[in-house]
Write a structure and sequence with these properties.
Number of strands: 21
Helix content: 25-40%
Number of domains: 2
CATH architecture of the largest domain: 3-Layer(aba) Sandwich
Radius of gyration: 22 Å
CATH topology of the largest domain: Alkaline Phosphatase, subunit A
Largest sheet: 10 strands, mixed
């Protein structure tokens, strides 16, 4: 086996569960920790799948990438958001740099890889692909082999790019799909290892993310909708154990000199509720509607009085606020000379926002121009972590109340946490179980390139951790 480096991504894997609560039940990860170095990994802001995996693999921040979320403003018109797919990433990723150095690479399920681009090897793209007939592999003929491996692993089931409708009430079906997706992706990894003999294999499992969003309230008494005695109370724990076993099976197929990185793009925490961002902006007088609807309604279904509106927002795991600036937006109202004053005032009001009990909610507000080294594309004017990611941003307006337990995109039990995890095991440089919690998502690219004696591109945000 030629394999020099294997990277297993566990989207949304929570360090407190792996390092502390369930460590004794995860023998593969525990062994890697015992012989390597591990710790919490600070994600980018915003700490979400898109753009976090691309930040990790390019060493660039969201502003440099021009990717501020799953969807981004396409232009300065109101409301038009487009999915940030692989074409938005203009910097080389780890597998491109390794491929240019002569490595054969295999990339499976890494978010941000659809449409698939040419690599020196094989690529199976991610959940951004709309369907398996959309051309989701490179080379295109690889899709036939993926279908064969999938048929052997999960007879009668097509290849799952993602769990269908993972925000739904049918939890048992979601769990079945999560396991099937896991089995399929690891089967593809085994097949590619056998047939392609790559130097790099990178696989991202989305099941950890999907099962936590679906079932966190069933296991965590801190959740406001906790379900005592739920038959699904152990489902997340069981899935962590299952993935640990699948990683172990994969590593058995690797050579004794293969270096292993297990990593998550961010962590997870119980979702305490939602902040109706546009409702708050309307009540503050920043967002002006022609008519206030009697019940919560999506903003794009409401007539907005743009000449009197200063700001509007978008929902998601974090909040994005856009200012209506004269000469920038079609019906802008904020004079450019007043832009910074208006933005600072709005940020201060968000930071002071009280929660349902009247005490400060603990919001964190970020200004892209201060957060990122560059701001490309159309960035939000402000990024908001409600309750430091304890609460999500809900985009509806109408009816009463700022706070809600309803999610405008379907049932969801968990939000993201700023810190994910990393576990690094290098047979040539054993670390003896050292814990290091100071790593950032940007540090992994330069660290891996240095480890394998490859040049580090100029201008990366991260640093070599010298492991």
């Amino acid at each position: 086996m030629n394999l020099r480096l294997v990277i297993i991504g566990l989207d949304c894997a929570e360090p407190s569960l792996v390092f502390d609560r369930w460590r004794s039940e995860l023998p593969t990860l525990a062994r890697l920790m015992a012989h390597g170095v591990y710790g919490r990994l600070e994600s980018c802001v915003p700490a979400i799948t898109v753009p976090a995996w691309s930040c990790m693999m390019t060493g660039r921040d969201p502003g440099e990438l021009g990717v501020y979320g799953f969807r981004n403003r396409a232009d300065r018109t109101y409301g038009r958001m487009v999915v940030a797919d692989s074409r938005a990433i203009r910097f080389p990723r780890l597998w491109n740099l390794l491929g240019d150095a002569g490595w054969r690479v295999a990339v499976i399920g890494v978010p941000g890889t659809f449409p698939p681009a040419q690599v020196n090897g094989a690529l199976v793209s991610c959940f951004l692909a709309p369907a398996i007939d959309a051309g989701y592999t490179y080379p295109a003929a690889l899709a036939d082999r993926v279908a064969a491996w999938t048929a052997a692993a999960t007879p009668g089931r097509p290849f799952l790019l993602d769990v269908p409708e993972f925000r739904s009430a049918d939890k048992q079906r979601i769990v079945r799909d999560i396991y099937a997706m896991c089995d399929q992706h690891f089967a593809v990894a085994h097949g590619i290892l056998d047939e392609e003999r790559p130097d790099l294999l990178m696989l991202v499992d989305m099941g950890v993310d999907r099962i936590q969003h679906a079932l966190w309230k069933h296991m965590d008494p801190r959740h406001p909708a906790y379900v005592p005695g739920s038959p699904l109370a152990g489902a997340i724990q069981e899935y962590y154990r299952y993935v640990d076993a699948r990683i172990g099976e994969l590593l058995v197929r690797c050579g004794p000199d293969t270096a292993v990185l297990v990593v998550s793009d961010h962590g997870a925490r119980p979702l305490l509720g939602g902040v109706r961002l546009n409702q708050w902006l309307a009540e503050q007088g920043d967002l002006v509607l022609a008519t206030m609807p009697g019940e919560p309604t999506a903003l794009d279904q409401i007539e907005i009085d743009w000449p009197r509106t200063r700001a509007w927002g978008a929902g998601g795991y974090y909040g994005r606020i856009f200012l209506n600036v004269r000469g920038r937006e079609p019906q802008g109202t904020i004079a450019p000379a007043q832009y910074e004053t208006v933005r600072a005032d709005l940020a201060a009001r968000l930071e002071e926002m009280p929660g349902p009990d009247g005490t400060p909610l603990g919001n964190r507000v970020f200004t892209p121009q201060h957060l990122y080294r560059a701001v490309r594309g159309i960035a939000p004017d402000l990024i908001v972590y409600f309750g430091d990611l304890g609460w999500r941003s809900v985009g509806t307006v109408g009816g009463a109340g700022i706070f809600t337990q309803e999610n405008d995109t379907g049932p969801d039990d968990a939000n993201h946490a700023q810190h994910g995890l990393w576990i690094w095991h290098d047979p040539e440089r054993p670390a003896g179980g050292r814990r290091y919690d100071g790593a950032r998502i940007y540090d992994l690219l330069p660290t891996l390139l240095r480890r394998f004696g490859l040049p580090v591109p100029d201008g990366l945000r991260g640093k070599d951790l010298s492991l």
